[in-house]
């Protein structure tokens, strides 16, 4: 059994939407990180992804399955149990995500400063 996911793994204060590099959509990279440690059930994934609705998580997982990034295993149990796991292709994104996170750590202040300056100049020219 894998360790439980840290409910705080995605700090709500962190402006993840500010990261200029996204894989697939806003949520795919975060789902990849949630699955890095092994198989997870749907509700396990929802806990650290506090801002995601069940519908959007379902859509994200289906798109990831379609793209060969995750496998979905349904167990014939009562109640039904479904687990998601990264494929080798999905695991290959971990290197890219790590590089993007390192870049963001080093450059996010400058990026946010540039955005703020742009917003200020755009609003003053209206």
Question: What are the main properties of this structure?
Answer:
3 strands
Alpha-carbon distance between the two ends: 57 Å
Largest sheet: 3 strands, antiparallel
Classify the helix fraction into a percent range. Answer: 40-55%
Task: Tell me, briefly, the overall form.
Answer: elongated
Q: Strand share of the residues?
A: 5-15%
Radius of gyration: 17 Å
Strand order, main sheet: write it out. Answer: 1-3-2
Strand elements, count: 3
In DSSP terms, counting alpha (H) and pi (I) runs of 4 or more, how many helices? 5
Q: By helix and strand content, what is the structural category?
A: mainly alpha
- Secondary-structure element order, as H and E? HEHHEEHH
Overall mean pLDDT score? 87
Sequence stretches where pLDDT stays below 50 over 5 or more residues: none
Overview of this protein structure:
With 126 residues, the chain is mainly alpha-helical. It is built from five helices and three strands. The chain has helices at 28-35, 42-46, 54-66, 88-91, 93-124; strands at 40-41, 70-75, 81-86. Strands 1-3-2 form a three-stranded antiparallel beta sheet. A hairpin with a 5-residue loop joins β2 (70-75) and β3. The longest helix is centred in the last third of the chain and has 32 residues, at 93-124. The chain is elongated. The model has no long low-confidence stretch (mean pLDDT 87).
Can you lay out the helices and strands and say which pair or pack?
Layout (H helix, E strand, L loop, with lengths): L27 H8 L4 E2 H5 L7 H13 L3 E6 L5 E6 L1 H4 L1 H32 L2
Antiparallel strand pairs: 1-3, 2-3
